[in-house]
Write a structure and sequence with these properties.
four-stranded antiparallel β-sheet, alpha+beta, 9 helices, 11% strand
Length: 276
């Protein structure tokens, strides 16, 4: 509805401008009032078209200039009519210019074009802002969450991209003794096998002899989990068989985190503080 009103007002202003310019061909009385009216009409029109005044900076002044062009042209033609030399040829030239202004304004509708230009620029700016926001959201890296400090230690030291055990998580761990810890390592992707973990890489990262690192399956579980034992295994107590004592101690461990796992041998290792 508002657009229709603006269109009607624009058409009426074009007719009024044409009448004033035609009157100015033979009477200077139209010059000053007509020019003032044209400038005032431009100001009022811009004031009532906030979309033009608030258009994106890239097109704001273009839209303002386009909207005010017919009004400025009308005022300039009125001044030109007063300054033009008298004579039939001059009048004919002026009349042709008036007809050209009237036809161009009526057909091109600069006011409507300026509004459309502002709308298109605003829509493009909003689309680019939305696209930039989507791109920014796409590159935002969500910080991983860890169930424990030990899991954080494993995730940040070994499971990072390019690390010794990428794509793995620390599911559980248990302190076997002061020199030994057992870890349950799982795959980040459900249904995927735990990738091969380099003993030599762990040995170098932990400054631990390779013979004190054991990587093997978890009894009763699939390849999606692995048992990792670091350090010296518990030493058999005095007066008992080493294998039996170790087996009994390992059975106690297995009741909690690693059921069914048997301890095979014992070594010595000082645990990282993250796992103690």
């Amino acid at each position: 509805m508002l657009a229709r009103v603006r269109s009607t007002v624009g058409r009426a202003a074009t007719v009024a401008g044409a009448l004033v310019l035609t009157g100015g061909l033979g009477n200077d009385v139209f010059t000053i009032p007509g020019a003032a009216a044209a400038i005032a009409a431009a100001g009022v029109g811009l004031a009532t078209n906030p979309k033009i005044l608030r258009a994106p900076e890239s097109v704001r002044w273009t839209a303002i200039s386009l909207y005010a062009a017919p009004h400025t042209g009308c005022a300039a033609l009125l001044v030109g009519e007063r300054l033009a030399p008298e004579g039939p040829v001059s009048v004919l030239v002026q009349a042709a210019v008036v007809a050209l202004w009237t036809g161009a304004t009526w057909m091109l509708r600069p006011g409507l074009t300026a509004c459309e230009l502002a709308d298109e620029a605003l829509a493009q700016e909003l689309a680019e802002a939305a696209k930039a926001a989507e791109a920014e959201a796409a590159v935002v890296v969500v910080a991983p969450t860890y169930a424990s400090e030990a899991a954080r230690w494993w995730g940040e030291k070994f499971a990072v991209e390019g690390g010794i055990a990428p794509g793995t998580v620390l599911l559980d761990h248990q302190q076997v003794s002061e020199q030994c810890v057992a870890l349950i390592i799982g795959s980040q992707q459900r249904g995927q096998a735990v990738p091969d973990i380099s003993k030599s890489g762990l040995s170098a990262a932990l400054d631990l002899p390779e013979e004190q690192i054991d990587i093997g399956p978890v009894p009763g579980r699939g390849a999606g989990v692995r048992l990792l034992v670091l350090g010296q295994r518990p030493v058999a107590e005095t007066g008992t068989e080493p294998v039996d004592s170790d087996a009994e101690m390992w059975a106690e461990i297995a009741e909690t985190a690693m059921p069914g796992v048997e301890l095979v041998e014992s070594n010595t290792y000082e645990m990282p503080k993250e796992l103690t």
